[in-house]
Design goal:
Blueprint (H helix, E strand, L loop, with lengths): L1 E3 L3 H14 L11 H6 L11 E10 L2 E11 H7 L3 E9 L3 H17 L4 E4 L1 E2 L5 E2 L1 E4 L15 H8 L3 E12 L6 H13 L2 E5 L5 H15 L11 H8 L2 H4 L5 E6 L2 E10 L2 H7 L5 H10 L5 E9 L8 H15 L4 E8 L3 H9 L3 E12 L1
Parallel strand pairs: 4-5, 13-14
Antiparallel strand pairs: 1-2, 2-3, 3-4, 5-15, 6-7, 8-15, 9-14, 9-15, 10-11, 11-12, 12-13
Helix pairs in contact: 6-12, 7-8, 10-11
Length: 367
């Protein structure tokens, strides 16, 4: 039976269900429950331009699956589209349960005048998104999804088709950049008067606004991208000041004008694995002592304003990010995600000795 998770108690069950589903999965990393609650909080700036409906599948008092239907008005205004989204999909390996969940989400989107359903997005492409399609050999890095392999079958059985694949690459610090690229980056910096600087904690809000401006303009024409509002971007990034070292956020300036940036974050899943969904007085000391031991990273964004893209600034940012991770005694990190058909970026990443090691899939179905 499908139940709408509208009450606080049912929302709690919605959040708690993955803890039951994945209890024996060694690769699953439990999110912090209080962070999950924020994703459904009406006060979240995302919901100023969107709305969400949560559904649970219950049988004999036991939850067997969950799904969210998302109406993203800002996406449809920006792309002149009529696409609805599904997200937060978790389910036992059962066609009847999965189909009932997809039926409920589809019906809600049809009621809102939408013509197709796309996902998973949790709740948008600016958050975690995609179904793990290839790469079931280890736990995910921070803010990347994970799911059982049978999800592919459940989703495709309902009639979903591939909309787009997202690529994740891995680069080990053992695979140092070719010396010719290092020399070339020096020449580029000198020729075009490009300098690199770290994010400023003193002027954090100023720099965050610079990152927001570049982020919105650099990805403006990418498939599925919707520029977050300034309020939403600040909401998503506010923890960066205390959790991410300034040296990991690199801003490129040409002639003193910000034109590109890269953001690398520690793989906080190393900590979350120990937290098991909650930070309490009992595990706080253990968690804090674990932070210096994080040796895996994720290059989460690298964007360049369109008018500066042919200067080779991306090479400067790749090499500097590598050097920072190496200096911090990191073993390497994931570069994710990129669109499968972004050949220029994907080839550049591979040329830096990275390996394409995971694929995530976004699905779509006409309603």
């Amino acid at each position: 039976m499908i139940v709408e998770a509208s009450s606080d108690s049912l929302k709690k069950e919605f959040i708690d269900f993955p803890f039951f589903l994945y209890k024996n999965d060694k690769f699953w990393v439990a999110p912090l429950r209080f962070e999950e609650k924020k994703l459904f909080d009406p006060k979240n700036p995302f919901y100023k331009n969107a709305k969400i409906k949560l559904f649970l599948y219950k049988k004999d008092g036991q939850i067997l699956g969950r799904i969210a239907a998302i109406v993203n008005k800002w996406h449809n205004d920006y792309h002149r589209d009529k696409v609805g989204f599904f997200g937060f999909f978790e389910c036992i390996n059962d066609y009847e349960v999965a189909n009932s969940l997809f039926d409920s989400a589809s019906e809600y989107l049809i009621q809102n005048g939408l013509k197709s359903i796309r996902g998973p997005t949790n709740p948008s492409l600016n958050h975690t998104c995609g179904c793990l399609y290839k790469g079931y050999f280890q736990e995910p890095v921070y803010m990347m999804p994970y799911n059982p392999k049978y999800y592919i079958d459940l989703i495709e059985n309902y009639g979903f088709k591939k909309a787009k694949d997202l690529f994740a690459f891995y680069l080990s610090v053992a695979n140092k950049p070719n010396s010719k690229y290092i020399e070339l980056s020096k020449k580029i910096a000198k020729k075009y008067n490009v300098t690199l600087r770290n994010l400023s904690k003193k002027y954090f809000e100023r720099d965050l606004e610079i990152l927001w401006d570049i982020y919105c303009k650099a990805w403006a024409d990418n498939w599925g991208f919707v520029p977050p509002t300034k309020e939403e971007f600040f909401y998503l990034s506010k923890d960066m000041k205390n959790l991410v070292a300034p040296e990991l956020i690199i801003i490129a300036e040409k002639d003193g004008i910000p034109c590109a940036y890269s953001a690398t974050i520690p793989d906080f899943n190393y900590i979350l694995k120990k937290a098991k969904g909650s930070i309490t007085p009992l595990n706080l000391v253990s968690i804090i002592s674990t932070i210096p031991k994080i040796d895996n990273y994720r290059l989460i964004t690298l964007g360049i304003l369109p008018e500066y893209r042919k200067l080779g600034i991306d090479l400067l940012l790749y090499i500097k990010s590598f050097e920072v991770v190496e200096k911090r005694n990191g073993k390497g990190g994931e570069l994710s995600w990129t669109l499968e058909d972004n050949d220029k970026i994907n080839k550049a990443i591979i040329s830096m000795n990275s390996e394409h090691y995971k694929t995530y899939r976004i699905y779509e179905k006409n309603l």
